[in-house]
Amino acid sequence: MASPLEQFEIKPVYPIEVSGYDLSFTNASAFMIGALVLIWLFMFLGMRKAELVPGRWQSAVESIYDFVHGMVDQNIGPKGKKYVPFIFTLFMFILVANVAGLLPYSFTVTSHLAVTFAFAALIFVMCIIIGIARHGIHWFSYFLPPGTPLWLVPLMIFIEIVSFLSRPITLSVRLFANMTAGHILLKVFAGFVISLGLAGGIWSVVAVLPLIMNVALYALELLVAVVQAYVFALLATIYLNDSINLEH
Amino acid sequence: MTAEAAQYFGAGLAAMGIGIAAIGVGLIFAFFLQGALRNPAAASSQQGTLILGFAVAEALGIFAFLVALLLLFAV
């Protein structure tokens, strides 16, 4: 039987090689473009005939935008208006990539650390640039919370720097680990169904149990896909907020 | 114990850390629910804080997971 890790294999669809580097158009690239096309169709067709009283599709688009806008507004405040499109793009891409990955025979883009870390590194670098552009050298006071007793200062600075540097790691690994673990779990239970079903006799009847489990896990994975997209967008917002509104 | 056995042993020990982080995540949701049932009107405004607390607690479990992955595939 195929290994549960087989679904994460990257296969070239259209091989391209530029001066020794493998730049093939892979199934990962195909699913990323697919996600973009889906988002574009959803947004464009939904808002094609924008009306004052929205129809079903338009209100679906509007409610998602409103959700992200509300989240940014709550966490950053009026200064965050500029960053709504960025957070919205991030949220939509991760959401669509996660949910599309749940379709049988599809490929989950976000189950690759390379993809999630690229997003997390982008946010991390963006936070530093925005922080320094807005506050200059004063931004480094972020690493020393106000009201720290003098003897705690070196320890606090150390802890704050470590926690700041671990942000891109936790942000990317959280999404990657959740998607990978979920998909492996689904595959393992699907494997149980097949091997029990082929065992014959009473075991073929018992095979219904892992099937029921798999259906329940699918529902859970759908929830995880949406929640992880939300968590990623929310944490990106909170990290941006730390750079924009320096509290001290 | 061979080096390979020690590697798997360490990965298994690191996996325990994930379980301990699960306790932390469970506590966060438990206390949120406790507070939310006392004052349901204020619950929805604290949803963001809830997810943030969950994410921070889970981050430590992720470190344990990372150690397990590093032991299995990188060492």
Automatic annotation (TrEMBL), chain A:
Gene Ontology molecular-function annotations: proton-transporting ATP synthase activity, rotational mechanism
Membrane disposition: Multi-pass membrane protein
Record-annotated membrane-spanning stretches: 28-47, 83-107, 113-133, 140-164, 184-209, 216-240
CDD domains cross-referenced by the UniProt entry: ATP-synt_Fo_a_6
Alphabetical keyword list: ATP synthesis, Cell membrane, CF(0), Hydrogen ion transport, Ion transport, Membrane, Transmembrane, Transmembrane helix, Transport
One GO location term (cellular component): proton-transporting ATP synthase complex
The keyword Nucleotide-binding is assigned to this record: no
InterPro entries: ATP_synth_F0_asu, ATP_synth_F0_asu_AS, ATP_synth_F0_asu_bact/mt, F0_ATP_A_sf
Short name of one Pfam family: ATP-synt_A
Localization in the cell: Cell membrane; Membrane
Main location: membrane
UniProt function note: Key component of the proton channel; it plays a direct role in the translocation of protons across the membrane.
Protein family per UniProt: Belongs to the ATPase A chain family.
Name of the featured protein: ATP synthase subunit a
Organism: Pacificimonas flava
Source organism phylogeny: Bacteria, Pseudomonadati, Pseudomonadota, Alphaproteobacteria, Sphingomonadales
TrEMBL record, chain B:
Gene3D superfamilies named among the record's database cross-references: F1F0 ATP synthase subunit C (1.20.20.10)
Subcellular location: Cell membrane; Membrane
GO molecular function, one term: proton-transporting ATP synthase activity, rotational mechanism
Domain (V-ATPase proteolipid subunit C-like) ranges: 9-71
The gene coding this protein: atpE
Record's protein name: ATP synthase subunit c
Organism expressing this protein natively: Pacificimonas flava
NCBIfam families hit by this protein: PRK07558.1 (NF005733)
Membrane topology, from the record: Multi-pass membrane protein
Family the UniProt entry places it in: Belongs to the ATPase C chain family.
Alphabetized PANTHER family for the sequence: ATP SYNTHASE LIPID-BINDING PROTEIN, MITOCHONDRIAL (PTHR10031), ATPASE PROTEIN 9 (PTHR10031:SF0)
This protein's GO CC annotations: plasma membrane; proton-transporting ATP synthase complex; proton-transporting two-sector ATPase complex, proton-transporting domain
Transmembrane segments: 12-37, 49-74
